[in-house]
Amino acid sequence: MNQAVDECIEGGYLTDVLKEQKAAAMLEALTSYNKKAYERDLREEGHEIGLKEGLEKGRKEMQQYYDDKLYAKEKIISQKDQEIAKLKAELEKLSNR
């Protein structure tokens, strides 16, 4: 970093600013780099957390969906069993006449 700033000064790029504020310019460059790395890491972490939460939510929704379907099937079976029991009882009455 120091070499890059020195080369800019020698090459005549931003000479006045860099000579007067070499340390501040280097600090700014390092801070900007670290900020970018920090923000990238933060985004990656957020992505991972969001993906994990999304998968968990999807799993729960699918479980609820299948639980609801199973409940509906069990309810239908129960209703049909009751209908069959009633029909058997009626048949029994008719056969006893």
Specify the helix fraction band.
over 70%
- Total of domains: 1
Low-confidence stretches: none
Whole-number mean pLDDT:
84
Radius of gyration: 37 Å
β-strand number: 0
Strand fraction: under 5%
Brief descriptors of the model:
single chain; 97 residues; mainly alpha; 3 helices; 93% helix; rod-shaped
Indicate the topology.
Elements: H1 2-11, H2 15-20, H3 22-95
Can you give a write-up of this model?
With 97 residues, the protein is mainly alpha-helical. The chain has one domain. Helices cover 93% and strands 0% of the residues. The chain contains three helices and no strands. The longest helix is centred in the middle third of the chain and has 74 residues. It is rod-shaped, with a radius of gyration of 37 Å. The N and C termini lie far apart (107 Å).
